[in-house]
What we know:
- The structure holds 2 protein chains of 2 kinds.
- By secondary structure, chain A is mainly β.
- Chain A has strands spanning about 5, 10-15, 20-25, 30-40, 40-50, 55, 65-70, 75-80, 90-95, 105, 110-115.
Amino acid sequence: DARVTQTPRHKVTEMGQEVTMRCQPILGHNTVFWYRQTMMQGLELLAYFRNRAPLDDSGMPKDRFSAEMPDATLATLKIQPSEPRDSAVYFCASGLGGGYQETQYFGPGTRLLVL
Amino acid sequence: GQNIDQPTEMTATEGAIVQINCTYQTSGFNGLFWYQQHAGEAPTFLSYNVLDGLEEKGRFSSFLSRSKGYSYLLLKELQMKDSASYLCAVYSNYQLIWGAGTKLIIKP
């Protein structure tokens, strides 16, 4: 069945290291979202793409985070350098954009711990 | 500004009915979503309301009043597996604005 996939599922790294998270949206979906979720902040939108073009990345710390969509089947989120405060669950979601009823389908998430 | 309010936590008994409320103040409105999120898992879609009224889907129903900026999710015949967080989200200006979620605890 169609689902969003994310890799890695878990990542433990040391402060200062680069972290790359990958997402494969559901085939045919043209919108991809990156979220961060923590107990304190809940779900925060970091960035989203429609038809591979970045539409909004205002929620993303620009100095260390970057998001790209090199092709329709792959979205990446990078953190360089990583910091302990980046520890969170990072979700990717995809949807069929263009209409208001854009249901978002979430991937299983990447659980990141920065020591 | 954009604001969505939900209770932080609710407790209910297996077999009972529970209503989770959500109030919102957003600059635009093009629909309201409810998502369920079990601990350690991803959010999953439950319902979408864009017109006033009640939408029923099995044991779950969702209600919307646009004039009052208010929605609720009604869960009937509660089961232990319904223990989860329930997230309210409003589609506003081409973005989903998320509430912090309501953690629902079901007791036997």
